[in-house]
Amino acid sequence: MNKIATIDTRLWQLGIMAILLLLGVLKRDFSLLPSQIALTFISGLLTQTLFIKFLNIKKYSFLSTIITCFGLCLLLRSANLWVHPVVAYLAIASKFTLRPFGKHLFNPANLGVILGISFFPETWITSGQWGADLTTALWLIAAGFFVARNAQRLDITAYFLMCYAGIFIIIRILWYGYPLAVFFHQFQNGALLLFAFFMISDPMTIPHKRIGRFIHAILVAVLAYIWQYWLYWNQGIIWGLFFATFLVPLWNILFLAPAYQWQPLSGDSNV
Fold first, then answer.
1. Do 98 and 190 reside in the same domain of the chain?
2. Is residue 11 a part of any domain in this protein?
3. DSSP E strand stretches across 160-242
4. Which of 148, 258, 145 lies closest to 210, judged by CA?
5. Radius of gyration over every alpha carbon of the chain, rounded to an integer in angstroms
6. In terms of domains, do 41 and 75 share one?
7. Ordered per-residue pLDDT tens for the chain, 271 residues
């Protein structure tokens, strides 16, 4: 077997997300303080450690927790120093407390972002922080493709992007007559690509069966479009995934398939 294929996919994802965060801070002038980054990781890792000790979990890993912390740093912004660590605590705690049918329901980063922008003052998502230049988009696609492909869940990324693009072209371009440049601008957005390759493709919180993932991706795309372009509210893709997640247990019941298991490093688990 190819030695690269045996490496836990999360290690590749961590490396790519770390590079993106570093480039964002150095080159894109993210409105993110070093102290906010540090507090996010301290809070997330401490929360995971406390739950592991309290629940006496024998096999565990901190890789998913670190990925969640990176996700929160890449997407969430706040004028308050305390928001990021509180959101990190809530996001990681959800993995241990919101577990219908024995697995955590929400993508922790998605839930953390939703809680942050909904309940905390002066907290937002900067969708345009990556810029919309084609180079950034292509690099994000290449990096995301590699991660999603190794996680064997590239299909849901493709389903979501194709469905979202189809809805956008049919309604915005063909029906309303917007220029095609609007479409290309939309799909060069770094936040959309980060979502498609690093959030909706999370193998632990999406349906097990391919048909379930197909339905889930379509539902997320439809909800995202309605939220963004019919209701004129912000962050449609983030909210679309949040609402669609409630139906994931149903798809797993209707379309039975084995649950995804991470390629273990040593003594690993799915928390």
1. no
2. no
3. none
4. 258
5. 18
6. yes
7. 444 444 567 888 888 888 888 888 887 767 889 999 999 999 999 999 999 999 998 877 899 999 999 999 999 999 999 999 999 999 999 999 998 888 889 999 999 999 999 999 999 987 767 766 656 766 777 777 777 777 777 899 999 999 999 999 999 999 999 999 899 888 877 788 888 888 998 998 999 999 999 999 999 999 999 999 999 999 999 999 999 999 999 999 999 998 887 665 544 555 6
